[in-house]
Amino acid sequence: MFNVTVLKMRDIIKYLVGIVLTAMLVIFSARFFSSKNPNERQNNIKIQKPSIGNLTSCLEEIIPCISNNENKILEKEDTKIKQNNKHKILENILDTEISSIKMMSESKKENVENSEINETASIENTNEIEKIDSTNKQTEVVTQNPIKDNSNVQYGSVKIKNETSYELTEDILNPDITIDNKNIVIFHTHTCESYTESEKYKYNSTGNYRTTDLNYSVARVGDELEKYLKSYNLNVIHNKTYHDYPSYNGSYTRALQTVQNILKENPSDIVIDLHRDAIGSRPDYAPTVKIGDEYAAQIMFVIGTNDGGMWHPNWQQNLKFAVKVQEKANEMYPGLFKTMMVTKSRYNQHTSKYANIIEVGATGNTLEQTLTSMKYLASVFNEVLK
């Protein structure tokens, strides 16, 4: 036990000696540096600055976010991003609002334009009707391949081809009628009858000068007549039911049912069965009259009787009406009407007081020519029904 204690004392002495030597070294160093010139101390301090700068730069490179300048830059960028986002939101809102405003303005513009077009169309129609009311237009029949006039009766300016056994006397032909019911019904026994194609009106035919397309058949001519008659404030019903399709046979039977159904609901004295003259489907036959500067298809009345044995108490009234209209037409537009035909067949004209067939043009006429003739025919009707 004694030996162990001695060893520990030695160690303590060693530690104490080391501490004393260290203290002396510190004191000596302090005295040494304190005796130095202040300028030298400043120089020493200056020499140490680069190391601090290097440390700072390293730290900034490792942790750039601690830089105030970069914080400001980031803050500016954040602000710009926020502002950009705000701008984008505003732009989206504005785009939506502007597009809505544009749509509204375009819609209003379209409405205004449509209104202007309608007003212009109305003005044009009005002017057109005012023009055709004039009876001073120069007219001339200009048919290229005319059919020989085979009329055998004449009443005033009205020529008639009488195919019946009846003698058409002054008393029968005198148009001494009063038209009280001025309602007008237009229909088509042969709805599919069509005309020679033109550059403007081309169509798909479904037979020899026939088409089921109502925009190019005689039904389109009926539309034109309806339009002009209505412009004179006349009450018009236009029926475009197919009576000759898919079967041509039985057309008049089917048409009779149509007319009777219409008249049950709409009592009318004037009933027009609008046709196109077949005339053997001659492509070179286009009865035409020039009225002013326009070319119009000629028109023809076909009036049925009871000479074929069918009950028809109205035929003389029908004939008087046709004479009255054609007299006025000859006065206003000479040549618009061809020679009237009076036949043995009834043609469903027993249905009304002033029923008739009106044939507009022939196979050689174009649709343009037939449409033109309708405004003149409507003008004549307007004068007759005043």
Provide key terms for this protein.
Aminopeptidase; three-stranded antiparallel beta sheet; 8 helices
Total number of β-strand segments? 11
- Percent helix: 40-55%
Mean pLDDT: 80
For the termini, the CA-CA separation is 158 Å
Explain this structure.
- An eight-stranded mixed beta sheet has the order 2-3-10-9-11-6-4-5, with helices on both faces. Strands 1-7-8 form a three-stranded antiparallel beta sheet.
- Residues 1-7, 38-82 and 85-127 have low confidence and may be disordered.
- Helix 5 runs parallel beside helix 8 (367-384) and helix 7 crosses helix 8.
- The chain is rod-shaped.
- With 386 residues, it is an alpha/beta fold.
- It is built from eight helices and eleven strands.
- The chain has helices spanning 2-34, 38-62, 68-132, 170-173, 218-231, 251-265, 315-332, 367-384, and strands at residues 139-141, 153-155, 158-162, 184-187, 236-238, 270-277, 288-291, 294-297, 299-303, 340-342, 354-362.
- The chain has a domain at 139-384: Aminopeptidase (3-Layer(aba) Sandwich), CATH 3.40.630.
Q: What's a concise summary of this model?
A:
With about 375 residues, this protein is of the alpha/beta class. The protein has eight helices and eleven strands. The chain has an eight-stranded mixed β-sheet, sandwiched between helices. Strands 1-7-8 form a three-stranded antiparallel β-sheet.
